[in-house]
Amino acid sequence: MSGAALGLEIVFVFFLALFLLHRYGDFKKQHRLVIIATLLAWYLCFLIVFILPLDVSTTIYNRCKLAVNSSPAESNGSYVTLAPSKQKCFKPWSYIPNGIMPIFWRVVYWTSQFLTWILLPFMQSYARSGGFSITGKIKTALIENAIYYGTYLLIFGAFLIYVAVNPDFNLQWSQLQTIGIAAANTWGLFLLVLLLGYGLVEIPRSHWNGAKRGYLLMKTYFKAAKLMTEKADAEENLEDIMEEVRKVSESIKYNHPLRKCVDTILKKCPTEYQERMGRNMDDYEDFDERQNSYPSEKSLVKLHKQVIYSVQRHRRTQVQWQILLEQAFYLEDVAKNETSATRQFVHTFHSQEPENKIIQYFYTPAVEWYWECLLRPWFYRVLAVVLATFSVIVVWSECTFFSTKPVLSLFAVFIQLAEKTYNYIYIEMACFFTIFFLSICVYSTVFRIRVFNYYYLASHHQTDAYSLLFSGMLFCRLTPPLCLNFLGLTHMDATISHQNTQPTAYTSIMGSMRVLSFIASGFYIYYPMLVVILCIATYFSLGTRCLNLLGFQQFMGDSEMTSDLIDEGKELIRREKRKRQRQEEGENRRREWKERYGNRDDSTRNRAVHTDPKESNFSETNNSRPLSKYTRSNGRTERDRIELLQDAEPLDFNADSINDDPLESDSGR
């Protein structure tokens, strides 16, 4: 079992990262290199979180073994061994042999740092570039990252010159490596505290509000109003870009040298626009016959970039609108079914996607009613209380983890109590739940935040390549300081505990932070205390209020703008609901008409086909030619009338207007 736990977690974390990436990314449409790079970044960060508890239990066992096998007289200068325990040290079930974890952490850490500081920024510029060739995209990416890379090289070069000139400093390569790690962790810790302070309050509050049906429904109406505005803006932007593409396509003909670039742009356009532009093409006109000013390749690159962005944004808003409609309809159904006397959950609309038969067998309407109307609100309340308790413990430990005598950090107290009895299962579970809760608070904030339209993680395969790569960069920069903060909370970091005991394999590859004493003894210890201020600011929604004052509409219960947007969203949902009801009613009527008169019509056609040819000849000879002419036309019109009645959609005279499009009504007049 020594390496089985490590192998199982490696496989499990890989499929977890693959599942999350499949939820947010699109494997079919996005570039394979973007998918592989993002998957690798997410996988390495999740792997660090899951493997670190095994490192802690293995380190505690090694300390115990070292304390039992040595005496105080035999202790060397490197380690001051603990007092020998009266009971024997038991090897943990997840014990990892010596020498494996340092190599594992070194490979994982430096790979993640290479991704976040070098490869992923370059791939961001490459994915966002509008070039038509690989060479052009690489050139654009290098130019955009020249300032980014040049800034870091300038700072590092100035630091090396200062060290070389100053005789007081005698730094070796290992110390320079430690300084680089400390600089990266300092930047990550600065961002970590900001995200952690938001997540510690918002996650319990969101689960508590999840038990309020009216709150969720009002917030859904608010989202519908904002999303409709964004959807209309995306459609207008797409129309403008497609108009520019049409002009370029008409000006650059088939024999122009830049026609290949135009064809590449047209392939990125939606299908309906491609067909519309294809009808207006005149390939027989030579571009040399007209002395027009043709667009340059640089302008086509810019247009290509705009087309990719506008099409992605339009597709995302369309999908999100449909998902939000389903969510609003479901919440309205829950509100209606709460007063149901039959205790059977009734849906207004049937699910458009086929349901799993196993889930449909167990998740009956009665079970759904009890879960949605009775059990789910209480479950969310209990979960919110548990999460709030964890948040309070984390805030307390962040403010007191520097105290070693007495030990005030609750996480350190839990680990030390388990260490006395060498209960490795309890140690690993306590470490796992602690770092897992910290990771959820930080990572969920990364998934929630949105920087205008440049960075936005949208579910249901609607996240663009730039946002996926940016999330991988954030994860790789946040995970190492998150793990160091966790080791400090549990006093497994020698810099915090001030004990010269055997360190964990993870802290051993970080080097001794005592090279930079002002960071190890100052910033790392006192900066996390700012999480208290951030939690208070998040609790009173200070950031939301500031954004609302700046003109960015945020959901606030005491705001007049919020009330107006809720009313607007409610009206939009009502219109969409009425529209879908009319569609379902029309489909049901057409289905009933076909079931009633479809067989009768088929039988009449069969009779006409199987009539006796003698009778038909006799009737044709007896009747006059004009009479037979009118008889055939009347039969044809009768059949056409039946087909039109079958395909006709019933009109809804209760609607606001029979025709929604005023242009069609004008053309009809």
TrEMBL record:
Q: Which keywords does this Swiss-Prot/TrEMBL entry list? A: Coiled coil, Membrane, Transmembrane, Transmembrane helix
**Source organism, top-level taxon:** Eukaryota
> Which gene is transcribed and translated to give this protein?
Lmbrd2
Q: Which organism is it from?
A: Piaya cayana (Common squirrel cuckoo)
**Family per UniProt?**
Belongs to the LIMR family.
Q: How does it sit in the membrane?
A: Multi-pass membrane protein
What does the entry list under GO cellular component? membrane
Polar residues composition bias: residue spans: 618-634
Protein name, per record = LMBD2 protein
Looking at the keywords, is Transmembrane helix present? yes
Annotated coiled-coil positions are 224-251
**Membrane spanning residue stretches:** 6-21, 33-52, 103-126, 146-165, 177-201, 378-396, 425-446, 515-540
Q: Where is the composition biased (Basic and acidic residues)?
A: 582-617, 635-644
Tell me which Pfam families the record gives.
LMBR1
Is Transmembrane helix one of the keywords? yes
- Cite the record's Acidic residues compositional bias ranges: 658-669
> Where, per UniProt, does this protein localize?
Membrane
Annotated segments matching region Disordered: 576-669
Xref: InterPro entries = GPCR-associated_LMBR1, LMBR1-like_membr_prot
Report the record's Gene Ontology biological process terms: adrenergic receptor signaling pathway
